Amino acid sequence: MALFRALAHSKNSTLSLTRSCHTVITFTPSSVCRRRSNSPAPPQSPPSPKKVPFTVSVHGKTWQDPYHWMSNTDDPNLLDHLNRENGYADAFMADTVKLRSVLSSEMKARLPPSVSTPPERWGPWLYYQYIPEGKEYPVLCRSLETETGWLKNAVLRYGMTRSKREEILLDWNELAEKYGYVNVGSCRVSPDNNYLAYTLDISGGERFTLQIKDLRSGLIDPQLEVDGAVSLAWAQDASYLFYTLSDENQRP
C-alpha cells in the first residue's frame, strides 16, 4: 500500500535531500562575534515564570511541580510569559537582524527553486511530493507512469520530469491559506486509486481530523470526517478504511 508522510509541519519546514555540502563562510569578528557598542543592551536576565505549588503523586511517588500551571494553554498568564520571553529574545538578538537576513538569503540561494521526493509507484500511477517555486508547503501529486519522462542526470528531481497531465491531490499551501495553520499527519491512497484519506491538524495542538477526498471529483465529504483519528489503513478492495482514535492523552 502506498505510504506518504507529510514533509511540512510548519511554515518554516523544508524538504531535505540526502547530499553533502561543503561551504566555507568567513565572518568579520568585529561585526559578528562581538556585540556592537552602539547596540542597546538587552535585559539583564530572561523573564522567570511564576511558581505555583502543585503536588504530583504517581505510583507511590510524590513530588512538587511548581510549573504545572503552564500545562494549561488557555491560561492568560502563560501567554503573557511567552510574550515576555519573545520580547527578551528579540532584544538580545536585536543587533543580528541584518546578519540573520543575509545568512537566510545566502542559504536560500543555494537551494533549487523546487525539490521533489522520489516517486512511489502505486498501480499505474507515480505519487510524489514537491514544494512549488515561491511556496513554503509541499503538494501531493500523481502522474501516470506511461506519461512520465525520466532523466538519469536530473539528481535534484530524483530523475523525474513531471507530466503535463499531473494531478494535484492535496495542496498544503491552500490548506494553510484557508486555516492559517496546517499539519498533515498521514496520507493513504486507496488501492483502487480513487480516494485519498489524510489526517489534518489545523490548531497546532496535534489533534488530527480524518478527511477523505474523492480523487475523481475532487470533493471532500464532511460527513466522513472523524476527529481524533491517528493511523489509517485501507481494506484491499477499498471498500473500508480502518483507523485508530487517540485518547485524552493523545495516544492511540
Characterise this structure.
By secondary structure, this protein is an alpha+beta fold. The chain has helices at 29-32, 76-92, 97-109, 172-179; strands spanning 4-5, 55-58, 61-64, 120-122, 125-130, 139-144, 149-150, 160-161, 167-171, 183-189, 195-201, 209-214, 226-227, 229-234, 241-245. 17% of the residues lie in helices and 27% in strands. The strands form five sheets. Strands 1-10-11-12-13 form a five-stranded antiparallel β-sheet, with no helix packed on it.
Q: Tell me roughly what share of residues is in helical segments.
A: 10-25%
> What is the CATH class name of the domain at 4-15 and 114-245?
Mainly Beta
Ends distance: 21 Å
CATH topology of the domain at 4-15 and 114-245: Methylamine Dehydrogenase, Chain H
- Put simply, the count of helices is 4
Give the low-pLDDT segments: 1-34, 150-160
CATH evolutionary superfamily of the domain at 4-15 and 114-245: Prolyl oligopeptidase, N-terminal domain
Structural class from helices and strands? Answer: alpha+beta
Number of strands: 15
- Going across the major beta sheet, what is the strand order? 1-10-11-12-13
Mean pLDDT: 79
Radius of gyration: 24 Å
Secondary-structure element string: EHEEHHEEEEEEHEEEEEE
Oligomer: single chain
Largest sheet: 5 strands, antiparallel
- The name of the CATH architecture of the domain at 4-15 and 114-245 is 7 Propeller
Which percent band covers the strand fraction?
25-35%
Shape: flat
GO cellular component, one term: chloroplast
Organism: Glycine soja (Wild soybean)
Biased composition (Pro residues): 40-50
GO biological process, one term: proteolysis
